[in-house]
Amino acid sequence: MSAPVDDLFSQLSRAPDFDAPELRAYDSADRLLLETAAGVRGSSGFARGVGALGPGRVVVIGDRHGALTLGAVAVLSAAEVRVHQDPLLARRALDANARRLGLEGKYSQHELDSALLTGATLVLMQLPRSLSELEQIAWSIARHAEPDVTVLAGGRDKHMSRGMNDVLSRYFADVSAGLGKSKARVLTAQDPRPRLDVEEPPFPVRGSDPELEFDLAAFGATFGGATLDHGSRLLLRTLREDPPGAPPRRVLDLGCGNGVLATWAARAYARAEILATDQSAAAVAATKLTATWAGVADRVRVDHADGTEAVPEGWADLLLLNPPFHSGAIVHAGVGRRLVREAAQALAPGGELRLVFNSHLAYGPLVAQAVGPIAQLARDRTFTVLRAIKKVTKR
What confidence category does residue 302 fall into, taking pLDDT thresholds of 50, 70 and 90? Predict the structure, then answer.
């Protein structure tokens, strides 16, 4: 099967997702998952409905750029594959690759719910970075898929932990690890545990913090969970102790996560228009719920969007940014650097960027060049908070 997979993978691109020479649109876990699925399909010991990959029987979760979904269609001959991808750019990359390969219309996108999983007998998934995200996925599969479902969950060895086996074992009676290959491994989960149909789902989670006057919501894939992450905590302290020179009229929370910054801003600036954006579907859902619990849902607009694509140029008087420093499971500062450049376009002349970042990333020179004069407002052992005022260009 290696030749068909090699041919497929060689045509995949990450576009329009963040790209760099050292990043690829697939990894060895994608390859091993497809190989394992082909073996499972042909094994009488694993027949249990997997042999016939008819319409709606195959579900793919966590596909990065289309390797699993298009591999299921082109290599495993699966029909009407259903897909869940949390990041917006992953969805767009899958669509772009499908058009390139002439495989449009062979799959459909869904949220992590019954419409995704009802009737599924085979689930292929890239193991997520967080155990919380894995728990929501595992619960959803066990609750909604067929009783004879087989789950194949793959990942790179360096990103896997024993905790992943433990999470799957809470929802499936039979969990086993396959042999490693090319620094990747596949976990197989079967026999969903009973009584999930009468148990409350584990998400959304509700959390609180002494420094906040409202609760935080989180779903499995929400960055930081239902907690006030350290970077946002430091940024909020600077907003309290060193507020903007004038109350902002338009505030943008770029990469909103669980919505803590947007919700805080809506409560602090009663007359301001608040816009929050994130490319994560789980972040968008969490931000909406956080704002609802805080009583400001009518004043916080939340867009599922890539960067500032939903923001008019020069819109924001105040832009709050706690940028990611990874692309998928790969640590890469390029994602944050792109958001800093986009922030400069979204700011009005004289508008303020309030940025928190891991100190070792040294964003200062980039911020000064892209936005304007900077001032360091806070720094500890891990994070730095900068203020930058967008330059007013003379005509």
Answer: very high
Q: What residues contact 84, with CB distance under 8 A and at least 6 apart?
A: 59, 60, 61, 62, 109, 110, 111, 112, 116
CB distance 69 to 94 below 8 Å:
yes
Are 145 and 210 contained in the same domain? no
Q: How many CA atoms lie within 13 A of 28 on its CB side?
A: 10
Distance CA 328, CA 291 (A): 27
Interval 211-222: pLDDT, tens: 999 999 999 999
Q: What is the pLDDT of residue 394?
A: 65
What are the Cα distances from residue 97, in Å, to 3, 8, 59, 101, 104? 19, 10, 18, 6, 9
Of 179, 25, 6, 181, the closest CA to residue 93 belongs to: 25
pLDDT tens for 80-104 read: 999 999 999 999 999 999 999 999 9
Q: Is residue 59 part of a domain?
A: yes
**255 Rama sector, left if φ>0, alpha if ψ -120 to 50, beta otherwise:** left
Choosing from 140, 167, 198, the residue where a domain stops is 198
Q: Is residue 394 part of a domain?
A: no
Q: For residues 287 and 331, give the distance between their C-alpha atoms in angstroms, rounded to a whole number.
A: 24
> Is 132 within a domain?
yes
Same structural domain, 130 and 70 = yes
In a domain, 93, yes or no: yes
pLDDT at residue 47 is higher than 50: no
Give the per-residue pLDDT at 51.
52
What range does the domain containing 169 cover? 2-198
Q: Quote the CA–CA distance of 143 and 114 in Å, as a whole number.
A: 8
Angle at 236 between CA 257 and CA 291, to 5 degrees: 45
Single-letter code of the amino acid located at 207: G
Domain count, the chain: 2
Per the CB < 8 A criterion, the answer to whether 265 and 256 are in contact is no
Indicate whether 345 and 222 sit together in one domain: yes
CATH code of residue 284: 3.40.50.150
Tokens standing for residue 122? 């085979």
Among candidate residues 163, 198, 233, the one where a domain is terminated? 198
Give helix 162-171 / helix 131-144 axis angle, nearest 10°. 30
